[in-house]
């Protein structure tokens, strides 16, 4: 496991990067390399395969994009005359692909290198035309890239650098078969970089057939509390969640709030209910067309809409500046998603607040989350929205051990409140 002392102070000039690239880095107001950049960039420049555990917001995109651009710039002009794809970056979602492309575009300023993007929900024809203009770096989602390959619109036989961004999410979304298909079309001689929010058994198993004697870097663990974020868990009856959320938005005067729902239908229903309560809210999920999603995201980013109600998959990779509030209307199905959810706020050293509306029926999910985090999430009651402790908690038609545990937890909560 590679690691640099976190107290090291260095600038990007220490990496001996191409001068044009350094100018682009400076223009983007990068100051000092983040921990993941300090550790990953030197290894990538040395040509090593990499397995990196780094969460969103750690600077991971620049950690692979900067050395990739440098390596292409250092190649001879003859090597770029054909404008074939040398660098391929795979992402699980369209939103993440667009953000990575934005970063690549900024780093390529002042160079002759070209980039393109391929993702579902957008015009295939426009993407094909961009390929014909010549591409050095392609950012793509697996499904759309395979579509182009099957129609022979693009070739990967010259790829020298392959990057998997958010590999854990790719596996969660069921892209394993697509990735296996893509690997058959790639040169075996290449440098491969795999970035994942968490390094678990499935990622290590997945990486075995991808990486050649990789260096392993882990900057942020799944059970690491996100810095600068105040976590609040409000215990409230399920039927009063909406009222409490609307109260928080109006009474606390929260602006630009990202609310998470477990399902697409739930996101639609919640956004609709909030609109009926006079709150500007829009849903954001995978069933919306790409143009609608981009329009919704633009309105939210420009503060034209107060609340964005999103699903976990749709919101993965979102990077919204000055987002101060995240609300878990429901706990996620997968506990690890809690880290990704609250990581949308508290970015770039700024403070953030993450609120979870917890109904006692979700005790099992909360206990699972606390096990992952290896810490308790203290519950509190919001004045005027205290839970009804006289309710019986049942699962199905009869009491179960889980239900009995939930009742015991209710009594414990009530005892704490009386002290």
Question: What class do helices, strands and sheet pairing give?
Answer: alpha/beta
Determine the mean pLDDT: 85
Based on the coordinates given, report the CATH architecture of the largest domain: 3-Layer(aba) Sandwich
Q: What is the radius of gyration computed over CA atoms, rounded to a whole number of angstroms?
A: 23 Å
Give the topology string: H per helix, E per strand: HHEHEHEHEHEHHEHEEHEHEHEHEHEHEH
Query: How would you name the CATH homologous superfamily of the largest domain?
Result: P-loop containing nucleotide triphosphate hydrolases
Give the fraction of residues assigned to helices: 25-40%
Number of DSSP helical runs = 16
The CATH topology assignment of the largest domain is Rossmann fold
CATH class of the largest domain: Alpha Beta
Give the termini distance in whole angstroms.
48 Å
The shape is globular
Number of domains: 2
Largest sheet: 7 strands, parallel
Q: Assess the beta-strand content as a share of residues.
A: 5-15%
Provide the spatial order of strands within the biggest beta sheet: 3-4-2-5-6-1-7
Number of strands: 14
Poorly predicted runs are 1-9, 394-406, 413-419
Family: Belongs to the DEAD box helicase family.
Domain Helicase ATP-binding: 41-217
Pfam families: DEAD, Helicase_C
Organism: Shewanella denitrificans (strain OS217 / ATCC BAA-1090 / DSM 15013)
Summarize the structure in short.
The protein has 419 residues and is α/β, with parallel strands linked by helices. It has 16 helices and 14 strands.
């Amino acid at each position: 496991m590679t690691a640099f002392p976190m107290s090291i102070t260095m600038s990007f000039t220490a990496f001996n990067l191409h001068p044009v690239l350094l100018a682009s880095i400076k223009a983007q107001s990068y100051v000092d390399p983040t921990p993941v950049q300090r550790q990953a960039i030197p290894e990538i420049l040395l040509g090593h395969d990499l397995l990196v555990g780094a969460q969103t917001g750690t600077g991971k995109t620049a950690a692979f994009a900067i050395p990739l651009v440098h390596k292409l710039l250092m190649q001879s002009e003859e090597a770029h005359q054909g404008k074939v794809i040398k660098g391929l970056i795979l992402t699980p979602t369209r939103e993440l692909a667009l953000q990575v492309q934005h970063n690549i575009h900024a780093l390529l300023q002042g160079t002759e290198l070209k980039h393109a993007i391929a993702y579902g929900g957008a015009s295939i024809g426009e993407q094909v035309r961009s390929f014909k203009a010549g591409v050095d770096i392609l950012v793509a989602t697996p499904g759309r890239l395979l579509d182009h390959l099957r129609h022979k619109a693009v070739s990967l036989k010259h790829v020298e650098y392959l990057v998997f961004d958010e590999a854990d999410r790719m596996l969660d979304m069921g892209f394993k078969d697509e990735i296996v298909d893509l690997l058959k079309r790639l040169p075996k001689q290449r440098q491969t970089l795999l970035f994942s929010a968490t390094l678990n058994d499935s990622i290590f198993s997945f990486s075995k057939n991808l990486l050649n004697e990789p260096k392993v870097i882990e900057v942020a663990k799944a059970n690491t509390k996100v810095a600068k974020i105040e976590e609040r868990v409000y215990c409230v009856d399920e039927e009063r969640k909406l009222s409490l959320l609307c109260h928080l938005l109006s009474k606390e005067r929260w602006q630009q709030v990202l609310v998470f729902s477990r399902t697409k239908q739930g996101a639609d229903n919640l956004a609709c209910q909030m609109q009926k309560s006079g709150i500007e809210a829009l849903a954001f999920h995978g069933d919306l067309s790409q143009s609608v999603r981009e329009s919704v995201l633009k309105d939210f980013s420009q503060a034209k809409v107060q609340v964005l109600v999103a699903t976990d998959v749709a919101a993965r990779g979102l990077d919204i500046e000055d987002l101060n509030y995240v609300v878990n209307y429901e706990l996620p199905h997968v506990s690890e998603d809690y880290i990704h959810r609250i990581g949308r706020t508290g970015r770039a050293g700024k403070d953030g607040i993450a609120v979870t509306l917890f109904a006692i029926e979700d005790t099992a999910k909360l206990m699972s989350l606390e096990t992952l985090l290896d810490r308790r999430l203290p519950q509190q009651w919001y004045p005027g929205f205290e839970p009804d402790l006289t309710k019986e908690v049942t699962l199905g038609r009869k009491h179960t051990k889980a239900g009995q545990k939930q009742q015991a937890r209710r009594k414990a909560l009530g005892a704490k409140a009386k002290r």
